[in-house]
Design a protein that fits this description.
Elements lengths: L9 H18 L5 H13 L4 H11 L6 H7 L3 H16 L5 H12 L10 H10 L9 H9 L10 H14 L10 H10 L8
Helix pairs in contact: 1-10, 2-7, 3-7, 5-6, 6-9, 8-10
Length: 199
């Protein structure tokens, strides 16, 4: 099942630009430090281990008192790193389109506890692995796309379709958003207030 990648007008871009600026005003200079630090280590090591996944859980403010978190803790760090190394290689592969890289990276993580369903944590790991190519997915960003008139369904492969939608938007972005990465756009979508004119 596919989604429409869509384009938006100048009003939509103005909303996104304002939302991203609001994020930086309210979140402060330090909120993304955890993600940035994990990304630095991933750049050097080529993989992401359990300790850094724990840090990303904090960054995403996800619960860790769950069966999947217990199962992940019971998995050898070497096994976790094998999966995240394959995911890292996939999302950094510049011979692949962003959506194909996202699909391959997401598939590489699917065998790990906590990564079989849902894209919030997986997308954060993939973004740490390739911060200039990938973007964090969550229900707020999903709602942001919807408020811009861009549908995204929840069928299998949602993360690669999400990245395709972001890539398409950025291809048609005006200045100053023309220089944005997918991560910049996910921040804007996360903070995008509802379009009251269309409700």
């Amino acid at each position: 099942m596919t989604d429409q990648t869509g384009t938006i007008g100048s009003d939509g871009w103005q909303r996104l630009i304002a939302a991203r600026a609001a994020y930086h005003r309210t979140a402060g200079a330090h909120y993304d430090e955890v993600l940035d630090q994990v990304a630095e280590r991933a750049q050097k090591e080529g993989s992401i281990g359990k300790a850094d996944i724990g840090a990303l859980l904090l960054f995403k403010r996800l619960r860790a008192d769950t069966p999947w978190a217990r199962a992940l803790m019971a998995t050898a760090d070497a096994d976790v790193r094998r999966a995240t190394a394959a995911a890292t290689a996939a999302v950094r592969d510049t011979t692949l389109s962003l959506s194909d890289a996202a699909r391959a990276g997401r598939a590489a993580l699917a065998g790990l506890p906590g990564f079989t369903r849902g894209d919030a944590l997986a997308s954060t790991v993939l973004t740490a692995a390739a911060p200039h190519r990938m973007a964090v997915y969550d229900r707020h960003a999903h709602a942001g796309l919807r408020s811009l008139g861009i549908p995204l369904n929840n069928a299998s492969g949602r993360y690669s379709r999400y990245i395709a939608a972001l890539d398409h938007l950025l291809t048609h972005a005006p200045s100053p958003a023309r220089a944005w990465t997918p991560r910049d756009l996910d921040i804007a979508l996360y903070c995008l207030p509802p379009d009251t004119a269309s409700t």
